[in-house]
Design brief:
The structure holds 2 protein chains of 2 kinds. By secondary structure, chain A is of the alpha+beta class. Chain A is built from 7 helices and 8 strands; from the N terminus they run αβααβααββββααββ. A 5-stranded mixed beta barrel of chain A has the order 4-5-6-8-7. Chain A is elongated. By secondary structure, chain B is mainly alpha-helical. Chain B has 14 helices and 6 strands. Chain B has a two-stranded antiparallel ribbon with strand order 1-2. The radius of gyration of chain B is 20 Å and the shape is globular. The interface between A and B is medium-sized, with 10 and 16 residues. Strand 1 of chain A pairs antiparallel with strand 2 of chain B, so a sheet runs across the interface.
Chain lengths: 211, 325
């Protein structure tokens, strides 16, 4: 009898404690999912909006391809300060360039484009393989690291932008580019001073319209 | 004035050692004897102290628990995981979103359950505690990896963090909690039936059994309490770091055993106390702190700590012999 009373009292005390200090709340899975994603940074959404809204008007501000190539050949340092962007203390410069050219070669690594005419050597090699790195994000200069609370979010944007290029720009190029076809392009490049004179210049396309 | 007897010296050896160290370090390092340094030492020893209280009870029964570090990690990880991600019950279409209080309870329950499992395996299958708890060490480490996926669980919020990183009356909350636990378990070990049974089992298990004690039940209780205290330590570490890391508590079992031994608890059981263990933890804490303040090479620090542990056991042995004589 005494034992039963002790157990009963214990249960009542526990019930009061848990009533005053609940251990958990029960919510539906739908509600839990909504709460989890609320306010959480979504890199895919950000990149998609960037691609549709921020990038198109900025294409006009991209530097002329021939001008940049000439500047790079002449003096890489001056070219970097005039046309490039540098992130942090890095030695690497990012270039956002546009122009028109002619496809001269289609190889596994990419599409060779000359700016001078169908018989010229390729000045640019537009990459058509899998992309990595932050070239698109940093070359356009439209995304500022300080907008993001942590570097992981900032890095995720690059991944998503590369994915968009891989899925929306490169497939059309790969399928339709043939030697001799004219092309309007806007591309991004990442260069160190040592690579500045290398030709063709390896670039990532953000716009490629075959005529 | 009457000179101190050998018995008194043996009885208070840990306290004397601590006082000698404090005096020496006060003279040698200017910043040692300050309030902030004192609080730092207390905060640093809090996790080991919490673990060591449970280890003391276990060693008093003549056992050992090598799984406390792993239980610490699992308890912290479970609490952090439940607090951060909740518990999804897909078949019911609901999620249990844990409050900090619920997460703390869950962490304690995990420690308690694993400790109980240890005790049950040791008593039911007559396994040596060393082997049984070594198995649990591996099981708990594996479960921690499974639960966390090998990644830390971070961002647990200020409410949960308060118990590990908060202050009350200028003293870290973790220190208050550990001080409370020391008092509680000192009282349990000295003034309760369970406490007396623990000493009886450790002193002579057969005699205890012949005199009618349910030795197995006492052992299960002791391992359960040890597990719960390991769980509490896991909560303190997790709250303090605001993160549950899968590798938390690696090697803590050895620090804990060292503190118990330095505190004068006999590894063969039956002799020692929770207060002695608290002193043992303080000695290790003061030693660590002092060696850093004296700018002793980190590799030498390891050597010195090892020597101190050896000395403690040798003195303890000598003390034990003289008491028997």
């Amino acid at each position: 009898m005494k034992r039963a009373v002790s157990i009963l009292v214990g249960c009542i005390v526990l019930a009061i404690v848990f009533w005053l200090f609940p251990a958990f709340h029960i919510v539906s899975l739908k509600q839990a999912q909504a709460e989890k994603t609320k306010g959480v940074f979504n890199a895919a959404d950000f990149a998609s909006e960037f691609w549709r809204k921020r990038l198109p008007p900025a294409l006009k501000q991209a530097a002329d391809a021939q001008t940049v190539l000439d500047a790079l050949t002449k003096d890489a340092k001056t070219a970097a300060t005039t046309y490039g962007r540098t992130v942090g203390i890095s030695d690497t410069s990012y270039y956002f360039i546009r122009g028109t050219g002619t496809v001269v070669s289609v190889v596994a690594k990419g599409i060779g484009v000359t700016l001078h005419g169908p018989d010229g050597k390729p000045d640019l090699l537009i990459k058509t393989g899998l992309l990595s790195g932050n070239t698109v994000r940093d070359a356009t200069g439209l995304v500022n690291a300080s907008e993001f609370p942590n570097s992981q979010n900032f890095n995720d944007i690059s991944t998503e932008l590369n994915r968009i290029v891989e899925s929306q720009v490169i497939p059309n190029l790969k399928t339709n580019a043939t030697a001799g076809r004219k092309l309007s392009f806007a591309v991004c490049a990442e260069l160190s001073e040592d690579d500045a004179a290398d030709r063709p210049l390896k670039v990532i396309p953000v716009l490629a319209e075959l005529q | 004035m009457k000179p101190l007897s050998k018995e008194t010296l043996t009885r208070f050896q840990s306290l004397i050692a601590l006082l000698v160290m404090i005096v020496f370090l006060s003279v040698k390092a200017d910043s040692f004897l300050t309030v902030s340094n004192g609080l730092t030492i207390l905060l640093q020893i809090s996790v080991n102290l919490c673990l060591s209280i449970g280890m003391t009870l276990i060693i008093l029964t003549g056992g050992i628990d090598l799984s406390v570090g792993a239980i610490l990690a699992l308890s912290g990880a479970v609490a952090a995981g439940l607090l951060k991600n909740g518990l999804t019950l897909a078949w019911l279409g609901v999620q249990l979103q844990f409050t900090p209080f619920g997460a703390v309870l869950a962490g304690l329950v995990v420690g308690l359950a694993l400790g109980c499992f240890n005790g049950t395996v040791i008593t039911r299958f007559k396994l040596p505690p060393f082997v049984a708890t070594l198995g649990m060490l591996s099981i708990a480490r594996g479960l921690t990896m499974l639960w966390t996926g090998g990644f830390p669980i971070t961002g647990l919020g200020p409410k949960f963090g308060f118990m590990g990183a908060g202050f009350w009356l200028g003293v870290p909350m973790a220190v208050w909690i550990c001080a409370g636990l020391v008092v509680l378990f000192y009282l349990i070990s000295i003034h309760t039936t369970l406490g007396r049974y623990i000493y009886a089992v450790g002193g002579n298990e057969k005699s205890a059994a012949y005199s009618g004690l349910n030795v197995n039940r006492i052992k299960i209780w002791v391992y359960t309490l040890g597990g719960a205290l390991a769980g509490m330590s896991g909560l303190l570490v997790t709250a303090r770091l605001d993160s549950a890391t899968p590798n938390a508590g690696l090697g803590y079992e050895l620090d804990s055993i060292a503190a118990v031994v330095i505190g004068g608890t006999s590894l063969s059981g039956g002799r020692g106390s929770v207060l002695g263990t608290a002193l043992g933890c303080l000695i290790i804490g003061v030693l660590n702190n002092g060696l850093v303040l004296l700018d002793v090479n980190a590799f030498w620090q390891q050597v010195i700590k090892g020597v101190v542990i050896l000395l403690a056991v040798i003195i303890d042995k000598a003390g034990g012999k003289s008491e028997r004589a």
